[in-house]
Amino acid sequence: MEYSNIKIRALTITLFISILLCIAKFAAYFITSSNAILSDALESIINVVAGGFALYSIQLASRPKDLSHPYGHGKIEFLSAGMEGGLIAFAGIAIAAKAAYNFFIPNPLQELEFGIIISGIAGLINLFAGLYLQKTGKKQNSITLIADGKHLATDTYTSAGLIIGLLLIYITHIEWLDNLLALLFGILILYEGYKLIRKSVAGVMDEADVTLINEMIKTSEQNKKAEWIDLHNFRVIKYGADLHIDCHITLPFYFSLKDAHAEVEAFEKMMQTQYNAIELFVHADPCLPGDFCKICNIKNCSYRKEVYYKNIVWTFENVAIDKHHEV
């Protein structure tokens, strides 16, 4: 619950900031008639809508598991990120279309100094808000916070480009540069939206997070006990901030049920100590005398039938597959 409160507070703060910036940017557009500033203002609407949905999704994801949702409600975070990506992509298309239209039917620009000042202030505020959200999202393992933070940080880059473009227009008085600038921003925003949609689809489809799985397998290797003869079929599914792990661990066949359970608990505790919000389902397999002896690190085993050959280093390539190790 504490993690949820932190995420809700972070999103509430940034949503309030987004509303204020959106109002300021539209005021700047109506004063200057700049398409480039309009592109920034339209994206601010997306910030507000996406921020509101992200806040709702975090509140929903924080609900406890129930009979209808035995794995929790965390998947809503992927849908939130996908919706934000779709809105960003739509804004990019709208901005590019408006810019292309005004190449043929231009709008006269005015009072660009005001637009430059507003864009600069908004860019700095978005930078700090975006970094804050990304930092909080990484700590809480929340794709929604990270997505929202990256979106706000992207606003900062576009604001910087916007200011440079507006200054160039102000100095040269070449007004069609405003439409060119807006067109470029539209394409950039469209690409950012695509990346968020791609990441959301990957989460919904349970695409393997190779970086995370590599890290977890490395942790298992570094804390491996001699009794943990083999590890395979290691899979990780994300439910928002929650991680669900399935794997098979091979233990000595002569262990009692109590001994095997103790080793499974030791493995689970080791993983849970390293990662927050994690749920494990560990299947214990008995070793087969002769098949595992060459890679078994248990010394003075009275059941050994083969001479010890070498230690197998656990890696993504040999642990993620549904097959025990061989030499």
Question: How is this fold's topology laid out?
Answer:
Elements: H1 2-32, H2 35-61, H3 76-104, H4 112-140, H5 143-172, H6 176-204, H7 210-222, E1 230-239, E2 242-251, H8 257-274, E3 278-286, H9 316-319
Parallel strand pairs: 2-3
Antiparallel strand pairs: 1-2
Helix pairs in contact: 1-2, 1-4, 2-3, 2-5, 2-6, 3-5, 3-6, 4-5, 5-6
Description:
The chain has two domains: 2-204, Cation efflux protein transmembrane domain (Alpha-lytic protease prodomain-like, Up-down Bundle), CATH 1.20.1510.10; 210-319, Alpha-Beta Plaits (2-Layer Sandwich). A three-stranded mixed β-sheet has the order 1-2-3. It has 327 residues and is mainly α. It contains nine helices and three strands.
Overall morphology: elongated
Largest beta-sheet characterization: 3 strands, mixed
Q: Which assembly state applies to the chains in this document?
A: single chain
What's the helical proportion of residues?
55-70%
Beta-strand segment tally: 3
CATH superfamily of the largest domain: Cation efflux protein transmembrane domain
Number of helices: 9
Mean pLDDT, nearest integer? 82
What is the CATH top level name of the largest domain?
Mainly Alpha
Strand content: 5-15%
